Amino acid sequence: MLRSNLATRPFYNEHLIHVWLAVACVAVLAATGYHVSRVLRYSRSDTTLATQASRDEARAADLRRQAAKLRASVDAQQVDFAAADARQANELIDRRTFSWTELFNRFEATLPDQVRIASVRPRVERDRGIVLNISVMASSVEEVKSFIANLEATGAFINVRPAEEHTDESGLLLSSLEAVYLPAAGKPAVRAGARR
């Protein structure tokens, strides 16, 4: 087998190798450029975020100092006066929203035939809300108990209890009831034995 090159100028296929090397160099340079740009971008972003975080921490520390200063300057007596004024305003609002018509409609729907209402005195208590003192006249204790049961069944009256009972000279039972009144509760259904 003959191993000599008969060409006047030998051809070693170097051109293809140079092309592949150039392509590989361009790819490496492109990847390096991309990664360098990403590193620069992220380092700028990190610097910006670190600066912003330090500014935010300084602002938070300043706000904490201001809050402590304001807390120290608050007069507890003024806060108590403001709270008392707010309570009084709330009580006035509660009284204004109290509807006598709605209350008497509820009484009319729940009142047994042998029971009469003599007086109603509402008052607003801070912890219980609207408390009613209801004076009723009845022929018997059972009628008063029926009235109490009818009131509680509406859901608008809770903790209904007799505060005082005595009989007058004509034999009628005079009973003073106390109840917490919830005006927002649903309308009562008319019960059997109640006046319409």
Task: Summarize the structure in short.
This protein is α+β, with helices and mostly antiparallel strands and 196 residues long. The chain has helices spanning 14-73, 76-97, 100-110, 141-154, and strands at 115-125, 129-138, 157-167, 173-181.
Describe the structure.
The chain is of the alpha+beta class. The chain has two domains: 13-73; 100-181, Gyrase A, domain 2 (2-Layer Sandwich), CATH 3.30.1360.100. Helices cover 55% and strands 21% of the residues. The chain is built from four helices and four strands; from the N terminus they run αααββαββ. It has helices at 14-73, 76-97, 100-110, 141-154; strands spanning 115-125, 129-138, 157-167, 173-181. It has a four-stranded antiparallel beta sheet. The longest helix is centred in the first third of the chain and has 60 residues, at 14-73. The chain is elongated and about 150 Å long. The protein starts with 13 loop residues before the first helix and ends in a 15-residue tail after the last strand. Mean pLDDT is 83; it is low at 188-196.
How would the blueprint of this fold be written?
Elements: H1 14-73, H2 76-97, H3 100-110, E1 115-125, E2 129-138, H4 141-154, E3 157-167, E4 173-181
Antiparallel strand pairs: 1-2, 2-4, 3-4
